[in-house]
């Protein structure tokens, strides 16, 4: 639109700054990206700096706060932090964090690659504090618009505590959606005062003062389910904890050296270029590295606890295996589970003070946020987003602005690490490079048809 045809509103619109990147969500994925961009800006000089902003609905940084259980350790090496695999010399490595906290030697003396979840959360919060100026906390992105000719997107957001407030608009040449995961409940089960997802374990268990049955149930057979059962058994020494799952027992995770290569950065390249049937085979082969599996040490600990209680004749930790949950009935003051044995026996009920659904998560679909613009995103024959190697969604030519997605939504194209911490550092560098290449490409003048191309034109992204 030329200035001669623009109305007053459009002129005001043109005066607003345009970001190089607006990120939706500020979990570890977008935090790693913010760090990569900040380090690029620090080394490149002002003229080549990327202008960024992030929107986060939480009022402060937080990562799975409800599962920061005392003693629970990470299942990933501290070397797979937000920066090391991209740049071991970064000032945002876990080792640099330990050094600044005065704990580097103490950590080394533990002789472990796996910090506690509480300490790793402290590291993430330390990184987030350094990126604070880029983040608008307490804001919910609710719409994305294409107000112009396709080069710039407009992201609308409102305060979480005032959804009727006037929307704030951020203009950007690139959008990165890190919407994260949504807690999953079994069909027919709704959350309530005594029906929780394990995501809310810590805050909810503290509020439970009335416990007439002295009994909890934990539904699920993965790492979170096992950790929840162990936590409740330890936290409530007067209560019975019933672990409910349809399999015979907890399955151990495969963290052997060869299997762990599925989490290597190079494995993303191999997965992306593989035929569809090979992709599916790789997911089937290696799902036991991450999904519905439990750390072997924790399995042994739970089994040992159960056996010792049998010897003492006071069983508080019970495993209701090969059992299906058919219904959950939340009542005044308690909750009743309807259970069905899968092998033998009749259906029965179990009255509990609370039930924790450790039943996993589902990836949030970024197309929900995009609204009508979702129709411009290309999909494969199974309705999944088509995503380039640099994590950019393929779109129609109507959209020239970049739309990038992070997390499990790209698992079908980039593999099992998409929703994990393992490759965050490398992925953030890839996206930062893609943003720089895109900006360099925009600065190259288009040669008119029939004109001679400019000689010796070189475009770099460093």
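^ structure tokens above, recovered residues below v
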């Amino acid at each position: 639109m030329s200035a001669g045809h623009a109305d007053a509103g459009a002129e005001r619109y043109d005066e607003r700054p345009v970001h190089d990147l607006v990120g939706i969500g500020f979990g570890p994925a977008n935090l790693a990206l913010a760090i990569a961009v900040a380090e690029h800006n620090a080394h490149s000089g002002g003229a080549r700096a990327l202008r960024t902003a992030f929107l986060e609905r939480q009022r402060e940084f937080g990562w799975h706060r409800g599962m920061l259980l005392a003693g629970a350790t990470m299942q990933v090496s501290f070397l797979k932090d937000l920066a090391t695999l991209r740049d071991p010399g970064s000032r945002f490595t876990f080792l640099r964090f330990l050094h600044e906290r005065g704990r580097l030697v103490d950590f080394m003396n533990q002789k472990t690659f796996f910090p506690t979840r509480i300490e790793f959360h402290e590291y993430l919060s330390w990184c987030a504090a350094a990126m604070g100026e880029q983040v608008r906390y307490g804001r919910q992105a609710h719409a994305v618009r294409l107000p112009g000719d396709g080069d710039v997107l407009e992201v609308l957001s409102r305060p979480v505590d005032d959804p009727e407030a006037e929307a704030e608009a951020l203009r950007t040449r690139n959008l990165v959606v890190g919407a994260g995961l949504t807690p999953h409940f079994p069909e027919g089960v709704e959350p309530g005062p005594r029906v929780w997802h394990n995501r809310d374990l810590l805050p909810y268990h503290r509020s439970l003062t009335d416990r007439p049955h002295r009994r909890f149930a934990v539904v699920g057979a993965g790492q979170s389910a096992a950790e929840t059962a162990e936590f409740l058994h330890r936290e409530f020494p007067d209560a019975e904890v019933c672990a409910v799952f349809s399999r015979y027992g907890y399955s151990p995770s495969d963290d052997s050296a060869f299997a762990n290569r599925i989490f290597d950065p190079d494995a993303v390249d191999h997965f992306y270029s593989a035929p569809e049937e090979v992709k599916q085979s790789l997911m089937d082969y290696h799902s036991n590295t991450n999904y519905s599996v439990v750390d072997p040490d924790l399995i042994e600990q739970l089994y040992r606890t159960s056996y010792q209680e049998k010897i003492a004749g006071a069983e508080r930790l019970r495993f209701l295996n090969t059992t299906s949950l058919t219904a959950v009935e939340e009542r005044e003051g308690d909750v009743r589970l309807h259970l069905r044995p899968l092998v033998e026996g009749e259906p029965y009920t179990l009255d509990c003070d609370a039930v924790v659904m450790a039943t996993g998560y589902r990836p949030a679909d970024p197309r929900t946020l995009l609204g009508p613009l979702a129709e411009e995103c290309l999909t494969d024959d199974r309705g999944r987003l088509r995503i380039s190697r640099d994590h950019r969604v393929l779109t129609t030519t109507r959209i020239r602005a970049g739309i990038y997605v992070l997390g499990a939504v790209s698992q079908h194209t980039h593999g099992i690490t998409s929703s994990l911490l393992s490759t965050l550092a490398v992925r953030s560098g890839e996206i930062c490079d893609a943003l720089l290449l895109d900006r360099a490409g925009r600065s190259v003048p288009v040669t008119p048809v029939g004109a001679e191309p400019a000689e010796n034109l070189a475009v770099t992204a460093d």
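The longest strand covers residues 323-331.
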